[in-house]
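Sample entry (175 residues):
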Amino acid sequence: MTELTDAQIKVAAQVGIDAYRSKVKKYQKSAYERKLRNTKLILENYRYLEDHVNVGLPKLNTDDQAATAAIPKWELSVYALIGYQSRSKLMIRYIDLVLKQYEEDCINSADELRKRRYREIKALFLNKKTINRDRCAELFGVDHRTINRDIQAVTHDLSILLWGADAINDMSMMS
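Predicted structure, serialized as tokens:
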């Protein structure tokens, strides 16, 4: 077996360090992209989340309660549903607060672009009766690619409002 020189050891160590840094950076990039996707998914599914919170859960009558008394609560799907709905309720309250703050920021802005972007997002995702991207582009007199860029910009802004410093840290690692 041949001995490695100090120079060869340094080169091998540097290659290992570079590979590790590359892997960490790739992981950080994917975590950032997941957060952005989550923000976009929240927008895209906002109406469904609201509906989920407002759906009434079934009530058990006396006979049903007696029959289920012997079954541990953790085994009953109804209790799981209550947990899902409770978490959704908390999430939708938080999202509503964030969206209200974002709306105020946009409306009070001197930047007409920010105002239009908020109106686009509201029309696309938040109104009871939403519209598609082509109709939104037509309504606001812009190209559909502009709508896509605007959604990306709003997603960026909302990510900071939703996820705070983590979103900023992630974005700084991306540049």
